[in-house]
Design a protein that fits this description.
Pathway: Lipid metabolism; Phospholipid metabolism; CDP-diacylglycerol biosynthesis; CDP-diacylglycerol from sn-glycerol 3-phosphate: step 2/3. It comes from Iodobacter fluviatilis. One of its GO terms (cellular component) is plasma membrane. The chain is an alpha/beta fold. It has one domain: Glycerol-3-phosphate (1)-acyltransferase, CATH 3.40.1130. It is 47% helix and 15% strand. It is built from eight helices and seven strands. Strands 1-7-6-2-5-3-4 form a seven-stranded mixed sheet, with helices on both faces. β3, α5 and β4 form a beta-alpha-beta unit.
Length: 245
């Protein structure tokens, strides 16, 4: 099978899978709307078949993530739309995510994202966005639920970590809960969707960073600490992959 045909087949199968997974996810959401464990189930429904279709091979060292303290703010690096599948299988129990409000208009996916109890933020309206972020404090403190955030706020497209947005760290400080970083190696520049051997990725979770006793004055130092740790981890993962090639 030629490279173009293999790529086209993968994209066709991904389109069918995306629709079917969305329909299944909506049924789960309708049966138990806004249950915070819906994200974990739907993440696996999207991730497991997609990873095989795309030929992604992930080696994960995520003990800290799987054994994480509830509640916490989980932050991850964000490279592309494929992160939905890359991270989907790693979402722990009772974890919701934060996404932009426009996601709700994506057929099937947007509806299940909402029914899964995830937080939709209108980034074009700073007042509403701030109100939604502050409302998550109650979720973290009283609902035995963690929140997953892409700290950069947008895709970096494999060009290295972008500056982190403040929201995730403000949430963690306000709620007094730890921040748990999760890193995946830089894969977007090395994807092999037109080749059978696929794409290798490494994922690693870091030790939780406590926020108890911190105030908003500590925000810049906390952001810098988290970003430096993640940057060093991603660099180490990339080097490990390069040595293995």
């Amino acid at each position: 099978m030629g490279a173009f045909m293999l790529y086209s087949l993968r994209m066709l199968l991904m389109s069918v899978h995306f629709i079917l997974a969305g329909m299944i996810g909506i049924l789960i959401g309708l049966c138990r709307p806004f249950n915070p464990d819906n994200s974990r189930l739907c993440g696996r429904i999207y991730s497991l078949p997609a990873m095989r279709i795309l030929g992604f091979k992930v080696k994960a060292e995520i003990k800290d993530l799987l054994e994480h303290q509830r509640s916490c703010v989980i932050i991850a690096n964000h490279q592309s739309n494929y992160d939905l599948f890359v991270f989907g299988g790693a979402v722990p129990a009772r974890t919701v995510t934060i996404g932009k409000k426009s996601l709700k208009w994506i057929p099937f996916f947007g509806q299940l994202f909402w029914l899964a109890g995830n937080v939709l933020i209108d980034r074009g309206n700073s007042q509403r966005a701030k109100k939604a972020m502050l409302a998550t404090t109650d979720t973290l403190q009283h609902k035995d639920t963690s929140i997953w955030v892409f700290a950069e706020g947008t895709r970096n497209k494999g060009r290295g970590l972008l500056p982190f947005k403040k929201g995730a760290f403000q949430m963690a400080i306000n709620a007094g809960v730890p921040i748990l970083p999760v890193c995946v190696s830089t894969y977007i520049n090395h994807m092999q969707l037109n080749q059978w051997q696929g794409t290798e990725l490494l994922m690693k979770s870091l030790a939780p960073i406590p926020t108890v006793g911190l105030t908003q004055d500590d925000l810049p130092a906390l952001i810098e600490q988290c970003r430096n740790q993640m940057q060093a981890c991603i660099q180490a993962l990339d080097e490990q992959l390069m040595q293995a090639r």
